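Look at one such:
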Amino acid sequence: EILSEYCTAKNIVLNEKTLDLLGAYYEISLKWGEKINLTANLLLRDFVIENILDPVLSYHAYCSHIECSSKSRDIIDLGAGGGYLGIVWHILSDGMFNTVLIDSDRKKINFCKQVIRELGLERISAVQMRIEDVASVYVSDLCVMRATLNAGDFFRLSSPILKEGGNSVLLLSSNQEHEVKNSHSVSYQLPTGIKRKILIIKKQ
């Protein structure tokens, strides 16, 4: 209900299946959050805003500025943590993406695997791996990250992973200043008034 209310205010329509999946994701997070450090925001409203609504808004901000094809695309979430970017984007894409979640933390990867199993998600996997090693194994149309690295390091590490014409997308707060050559930004705002920014750079 909270998510639906916020999305309606932003003219974003989520169908019942998507809302059910995101709600179940929250329930699994609550259960696992008692055992491992997934997120500091386990209270319902805080969790919905920071870990569900923020990725929802960033997905729609990205899609509104980038031509999104209906055909399958490969996406890699670098430093995925609890999957609060890659899993949410995958759900919102309704299976359009072939998604790989990458993190070096075994416990967080095990959590992501459990989420994938319990939600019955297809064409998505979670792999324990150092970000620096990803380029030797994967190539992708899209690399995303949620402010785990600074912009310069993220774009440097994601570039070798991308196919020609692919995009690197970094989510960060708008008060963080990063100057990256050939990148452009898209801004959006959470209901709390907090501003967020996406940095996008296309591999030529």
